[in-house]
Design a protein that fits this description.
CATH superfamily of the largest domain: Immunoglobulins
Largest sheet: 5 strands, mixed
Strand content: 25-35%
Strand order of the largest sheet: 13-20-19-15-16
Helix content: 10-25%
CATH class of the largest domain: Mainly Beta
CATH topology of the largest domain: Immunoglobulin-like
Length: 485
């Protein structure tokens, strides 16, 4: 318990009166009373006259209640330079060995007895060397008692009675416990386990060899070269799909264009019982279409293909003279399907470039630098299978070569590319339009006034008629400018 008191003098009460409340209060110290550190003592004198002398100071924890936090002693090196001179050089020497420890270091099996010695006979000082050798020595001691050996589990057996022959299934496995010895503990845990058995990966599902040969034979005979105009309706049938679905009933039809999935929107492009239907084809629909069936969760079989090229009504590419031209063939899929394909670009029906032994997948994009007017025309990419003499047009591109940029075009492009100049040009154009409109209105008013003055003799005076026609023609021209704006 702790007690505290107070004096009634702030301010003193009148005679015969006193302050309300208690003069003394007693309470439990726990949580309320805390000891506090007193002042530090003065530093002690240095303990040595050489090497690394130290000095200390202390403080007392005063009061009652919870103990003080921190250290009661503080140590620091002497800072007097005269105290840091080296002690005389003395090499260290070993003391005599202590007696061997009475007890062995273990209570079973084999342990050791230990004896020690100190490097203090004499203790090294100054530039003297430490003692050489070990300060500890051991010798074997036998307890003639075997230590307990706990039981240990062996490896799990392979999964047995698995519900699958590959991949994942349900099964069980077991393991044996090597028995404990000399009073050791038994194995903890279960000796049998039921769960998911993970086996080797299952091989991918495949089609029967005869069906694979039949599908490849059909692909080698197909041509399906569709050269259409923009806006034509096109239907591509996924032939031979039934032969795969007879083997894998879950096989699903999937179409790809130039090795990318076809986006079916249900309006311009849709599927009808596996057939791909276009309401109105566009130039970007050009390319190689492959119908494949996905079966078994991870396998695919190509059963049919079509090659579509769409000729646009207007130019597909507009490029100025001296600029670069880039043409895409869309023939990569044919190069992967057939190993004997060759590729060439035709311009207006004439061979522009024959790639020879270069495969379509190696030259899908043709880059033509700094074109001239002679590159204007209709370009077609032609893929030919030398083994069967089949030919396909994989893309039709209309190219329009425009005149080179003049000084005015370049200046305008530079101005439009500069926000400050763009604002200035817009302001100037707006100002000119405003001036034209004001002039037009003013001349119309003058023309109307002239008509009134000349109305009295308009039938007799040719001069008045001419003046009226001039004013009307001016207003008509000005009116056209105004209406265009």
């Amino acid at each position: 318990m702790s007690t505290r008191s107070r004096v009634c003098d702030n301010p003193p009460p009148l005679p015969d009166y006193t302050c309300p409340g208690l003069v003394e209060e007693t309470a439990d110290c726990a949580g309320k009373c805390f000891q506090a550190w007193g002042d530090w003592s003065a530093w002690t004198s240095c303990t040595m006259t050489c090497d690394a002398p130290l000095r200390q100071r202390t403080r007392q924890c005063e009061g009652i209640g919870e103990p003080c936090q921190g250290d009661a002693t503080e140590t620091k090196p002497c800072i007097d330079s005269s105290r840091h001179e080296l002690c005389p050089t003395v090499n260290g020497g070993w003391s005599v060995w202590t007696f061997w420890s009475d007890e062995c270091s273990v209570t079973c099996n084999e342990g050791v007895h230990v004896r020690t010695r100190l490097c203090n006979n004499p203790k090294p000082s100054g530039l003297g060397q430490e003692c050489r050798g070990s300060g500890e020595d051991t010798k074997v001691c036998l307890t003639h008692v075997q230590c307990p050996v706990n039981g240990t589990w062996n490896k799990w057996s392979p999964w047995m009675d698995c519900t699958a022959t590959c991949g994942e299934g349900q099964g069980h496995r077991s393991r044996n416990c090597t028995p404990p010895k000399y009073g050791g503990l038994k194995c903890r845990g279960q000796s049998e386990e039921t769960g998911v058995c993970i086996l080797e990966d299952c091989p991918l599902p495949t089609l029967p060899p005869d069906l694979q040969k039949e599908l490849q034979h059909n692909l080698d005979q197909l041509e399906n070269n569709l050269e259409k105009s923009e806006g034509d309706a096109v239907t591509m049938a996924c032939s031979n799909k039934e032969s795969v679905q007879d083997v894998y009933s879950d096989a699903l039809v999937a179409w790809e264009q130039n090795q990318q999935p076809v986006t079916v929107d249900g309006q311009r492009i849709w599927l009808d019982r596996g057939s791909l239907v276009f309401r109105a084809v566009q130039n970007e629909d050009s390319g190689v279409y492959v119908c494949q069936l996905d079966f078994g969760g991870a396998s695919k079989a190509i059963v049919s293909f079509y090659v579509l090229s769409v000729e646009s009504r207007r130019p597909d590419i507009a490029v100025r003279q001296n600029e670069d031209l880039q043409l895409t063939c869309n023939g990569v899929a044919l190069g992967l399907l057939f190993q004997t394909t060759v590729m060439s670009w035709l311009k207006d029906g004439q061979v522009f470039k024959n790639y020879g032994s270069i495969r379509p997948q190696e030259a899908n994009v043709e880059f033509i630098p700094s074109v001239t007017k002679e590159y204007d025309g209709t370009w077609r990419c032609l893929i030919q299978d030398d083994a069967t003499n089949r030919k396909w047009t994989t893309n039709t591109v209309k190219v329009k070569v425009l005149p080179p940029k003049g000084m005015a075009d370049k200046a305008m492009e530079g101005a439009l590319g500069n926000p400050k100049l763009t604002g200035g040009i817009a302001g100037a154009v707006g100002f000119l339009i405003t001036v034209v409109v004001i002039v037009c209105i003013t001349r119309r008013k003058k023309s109307g006034a002239s008509k009134k003055r000349l109305s009295s003799y308009s039938d007799e005076s040719d001069e008045g008629t001419d003046y009226d026609d001039d004013a009307s023609s001016v207003c008509s021209w000005e009116g056209s400018v105004y209406s265009d704006m």
